[in-house]
Amino acid sequence: MERQQKLQILKDIININSTNGHEEQVANYLQKLLAECNIQSEKVQYDTDRASLVSEVGASGGRVLAFSGHMDVVDAGDTSKWTFPPFEATESEGKIYGRGSTDMKAGLAAMVIAMIELHEEKTKLNGKIKLLATVGEEVGELGARQLTQEGYADDLDGMIIGEPSGHQIVYAHKGSINYTVKSTGKNAHSSTPELGVNAIDNLLLFYNEVEKFAKSVDVTNDILGGFIHNVTVIDGGNQVNSIPEKAQLQGNIRSIPEMDNETVKQVLVKIVNELNKQENVKLELIFDYDKQPVFSDKNSSLVNVAKSVAKDIIKEDIPLLGLSGTTDAAEFTKAKKAFPVIIFGPGNETPHQVNENVSIDNYLEMVDVYKRIAVEFLG
Length: 379
Ligand SMILES: [Zn+2]
Known about the structure:
Aminopeptidase, Alpha-Beta Plaits, 2 domains, 6-stranded mixed β-sheet, 28% strand, elongated, binds zinc ion
């Protein structure tokens, strides 16, 4: 494919405003592009105007390597602060600017182009490349969850997530849990508190216990670092001279394999159950978000192949590292069979920011990197 066409594809999909939705328009664009090259694909409907896209190239019988990227982007924020309009991709000084350029339409486009080129060049693949382009990654990995539940990840032997990592390969990230605790008490005049139940006091019983637990966790992961817990939202009461009837808080946890989601959730449930045994304490715990940590073997063939291919093409040593943020891998790794995952994609430190951009050189080189990783990994 010509350089100009590769740039145009990226610009075209940046110009589709897929802010927390409308991913089907991106899926339609990619489906048409693949069809023009005689590659079939399947849309998996999530909701109105929201569909993930699945496509395969290669031969049955060997390994299956997934190329995965999300099609949604985050809000552009204050558009007056952008040098170029966020949904009119603009080329300037070796970069393409626009919302989603780095996170992660460049990675997605590079993966699709790599598949097309391998197909058109009739490269012999001892296995398949499977494209998993998802909806709703930024709001809870919705598409990845649906695709995993429907079995689309059950045949995978490896996965590359094209999230922006620049010249680094990420092979582990923390998990994430969001939870809410609601405390119910009883209103009374503040001059006669004995007639009521103070929901804030009871909520703070939970707060103290959960903080005590979080501080007691002394395991760390060599790559990912420590377990993190923070109460991040708290509200309660409605009037200064009334005993509050309601109060609630929300907390966020960043989990590691040594203190994983199931263990943490059990501890929180236990704290609430114990406190609820006390007179007048009525707490309710809700888990709003539950993404497990991802930790691939550093010596897996996928990591080794990616490292050597990247070094050869990019002409730099590519470091391996872990990262705090979660990705679609937190859902895909719930598939029936375990497989290694790497996060390796074009981009820089501008995701979710004003003037988000991607280096054209980095974008184009990743097309070649993905092609070679696929050929070598599939063997
Ligand atoms: Zn992303």
